[in-house]
Each structure stands twice: as structure tokens, then as C-alpha cells.
Amino acid sequence: MSRRLIVVAAALLLTGTSAPALAAARCPKTSLADVEDEVMCLVCGVPLALADAPQAQRERAFVTGMIRRCSSKHEIESALVAQYGPRVLALPKASGFRLAAYLVPALAAAAAAAALVVAAARWRRHARLAPRDTIPERSPLDPLQAARIDAELERYRQ
Amino acid sequence: MTTRVRPVAGIAVVALGVVALIGLLIYGVKATGPGHTLDDAIARGERPAAPAVVLPELEGGSTAALGDYRGRVVVLNYWASWCTPCRQESPLLERWHERVSARGGTVLGVDSLDVTADARAFIRRFRLTYPMLRDRDGDTQKRFGVTGYPETLVVDRRGRIAALRRGPVDDAFLRRTVLPLLSGSA
Q1: B28 and B92 share a domain?
Q2: Do both A104 and A31 map to the same domain?
Q3: Quick one: which H or E segment has residue B126?
Q4: pLDDT digits (tens, 9 = 90+) for B168-186
Q5: From chain A, which residues contact B within 8 Å (Cβ)?
Q6: What does the CA dihedral A67, A69, A70, A71 come to, rounded to 10 degrees?
Q7: pTM across the whole model
Q8: Are the beta carbons of B148 and A55 closer than 8 angstroms?
Q9: How far apart are CA A43 and CA A74, in angstroms?
């Protein structure tokens, strides 16, 4: 009987001690650094990772608290949006002046691609039109020079 | 001849792009930066109309508008629980709310960029009884040119901004700006 009790007590103890470890193992691997570069400090207008204002500190504490409660990155970002609105996310909204954040890089990339195409076309055209016979395959020797070389070789052979 | 024209055209295109980018930057700074038109108007002695603001109440799910307070003198106070000067200012605002509420005035708090639970704890801690609205992402503060916390605007009975304070208010400011509006002399 006492043996059974010991086994049961040991099983209970094991379950009790391993429960937090199991819970921790089930926790999504979210870190503060992973979240704070994707959300904004609204007062400072910079990513949370770069901010140290009182509002940023409170926001950071809010994120840390949720990480401790095993929240995933998505859950934390949703909670931040519920508290601070969608502006808390570091992605700028695609309307008004902030639309420029999407348009300017796209236009710059398109301009760079167009410049590359034009440059490549121009290079190919130049390559096609360039005279190919400007450098003769074998330049003829000056007869005097040829005679001198022949004489030198003859002397060398002797 | 053409070899001379082409580099000039290229330089012109690049220069145009640079000018366009600088223009965009200047526009962005002007469009997203804080406006000072309210301050200038009040400094000139004018009373600009307060922007129409509709916000959810901090407690309960209903919304309230600044226009709902037309006919009353409103001390509109932007605050947040993480703002240290707000902690010093809140008891004074509560005293003023008690003082003016029977005379057609009210303090109206706007909790901004804050965690709701923190804001509620702040209200309990300082036993604030004046109505509170919540501007979670600070959307309305730009319309008042709010750049920091706390900031307070005094709105007259006709819904016009009569005074503002960028920073914590003190008793002297409230006496000077609110009392004449309550008595109807201003």
C-alpha cells in the first residue's frame, strides 16, 4: 500500500514539476527583438527598437508581458493594434502621402530597369556596328624589316 | 554633335529626378509635421472653430463628440498614463472640473496612445470624475496640433478654441482662460 502511495506521489510530483517546462516548450518562440523592429513607437515616429521614450517603454513592457504569457508574434501585434490602432505596425499605410513609401521605390526600380535595358540595347548596337577589320589578323611586315630579321636569323644559325 | 547632346539630356533627367525627390521630401515634412496654425491664430487674438472630433468613451462602448458639449466651456485635456507631467496635472484638473461643472463648464479628458488598462488604473488612482474619451492612435491630436503630453485647449460655449497650453496647465492659466468664459465676459 505504502509502495503504491510512493509511486502515486512520485507521479504527481513529476507531473507538477514538468508542467511549467511543458508549457514553456509549447510557448511560441517570440522574442522582444523580433517584435520591436516591426512595430512603432507612436510618439517618436520610429521603430520601437530605436525608441526610449516613456510611451516606448510602456509599449515594450506590454510586449514583454505578452511574451511571458506565451503569446505568439501575431497575437502580440493584434493586441498592439487593438490598443494603439493600425499605425502601431511599422508598415506604412498605402494611402495619402505615405503611399509614396511604396511608389517611390517601385518607380526607382522601374527607372533603373529601364536604364539597364536602354544601356544594354545601346551597347549591343555599338558592338554590332563597330568595324571588325580595323585590326588585321596578320599585319604585313615592312620588307626592309623582314629582310633585316631574315639576316639576323641567318647569322644566328651560323 | 549627338554625342554632346545625349549626356546633357541624361544629366537633365537625373537632375529632374533629384528635384522631384527633394520636392517630395519637403512636401512630406510639411504634410506630416505638426501644424502651428492654431497657435498663430490664438496669438493673434482669434478664436478658430474647434475641429469636429468624435471618439469612443474610455468607459463603455459609446462614442461622444466635442460638439455634444456645445453651450458649455470645455477644458479639453490630452493625456496618457505614461506621461509624468500628466500625473501632476490631473488632480488640479479634477478640482477645476468640480469647480466649473455647476457653472456650465467641464473638463474633458482625451487619453491617447495608451493601454486602456493603464488609463483606467490612472483614473482610479487619481479619482478622476470628468468624462474621458479615448484616441488610441492619436488620430485627432494632429487636428489640434498636439505634439506632446499633456496639452490642453479651452473651448468656449460656441465651440471655438479660446486658449491652449502646450504642456501642463497651472491654476493661473485656468483662472485666466476659463473663468472669463464661464462668466460670459469673454
Answers
A1: no
A2: no
A3: helix B116-126
A4: 999 999 999 999 999 875 6
A5: 42-43, 54-55, 57-58, 62, 83-88, 96-97, 100, 104, 111
A6: -70
A7: 0.68
A8: no
A9: 23
